[in-house]
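So, who can interpret the following?
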Amino acid sequence: MARHSDAVVRRVPARVGLVGNPSDGYGGAVLGTVVPGLAATVTAEHCDGIELGGTASIDQWRSTSEWRQHVGDVAPIGDHRIINAALWTLDDHIRTRHGPRRRPDDGHGVRLTWTTDIPRSVGLAGSSALAVGVIEATAALWDVSLDPRVVAALALSAERDVLGIAAGWQDRIIQSFGGCVLVDAGSMATVDGLSVPTVSVLAPCAALGAPISFLVGWNEATATTSDGYHGPLRALASSLAVPMEGLAGLARRAARAMTAGDVDELARAVDDGWKVRQACAPLRADHADLVEQVRSTGLAATTPGSGGSVVTVCANEDRVVDAIAALEGAGCSWQRFGLPLRRM
């Protein structure tokens, strides 16, 4: 069914939330960045119908309408669940906003294949990386130009509206922009018919201080779904208004420190954010303990997502060595990564 043609490939890195999480789901703000060494790669190719194939089986349909009928009747499993949901939201958006001429008619579909090395269900946004990759690659293949915020909105809709998963903005915005950003849902705009948050792309200035780097660690043995953490919080939304506003303020403060290249102030904001989050929306005990083990080395650390991983600001090289030892002692894998610098 696939036709020989140029393929569109999108590589979408994992993400870490640094300060403000999970206030983006409550009209707040989050500062976060990508982890370049961990990513999902999605390839889109022209096809007479719809073909979906990851590392296991390949599913085929003769047309987009046949695929939509099947997905509406049969719930996919595994990675196919988020792949189908992302493609569904993109197809709906094109049909609604870009008109019949820009719509993939039957006989002009897509063949999607993907791989990922992002550890799953440890708070590093593995599912959203696949969703963003599907939307970006397929839209490019179909010659539809999408604002990165629209890509993020469609990926969020795939999880929240199609799959019924409690989710916020930060994962998809950070991954669609592919860098360090402040996601501010306290100020919304409308783009291509969709409500999207304000986004500030950040990069510390090379002339203002030492490069900023981070250490991320994760333990796949403690993996759990993000919905298990975020779902119960939604029922407490009214009581979380004040602490979420506080977390949002810390995220904005951290963004200013990031732009100025002030590692120490950034570390203080990360530490303050962890304390506020644990006071109002605590992690599962073993997930929180992983963060505390790294904090015990003297570095500021927090959870980058919903639990099962930890991210720390590398503000002291001697303590970084101790933090790596703590991670390895806890059975964790780890990576160190830095932020790109801007020039004056």
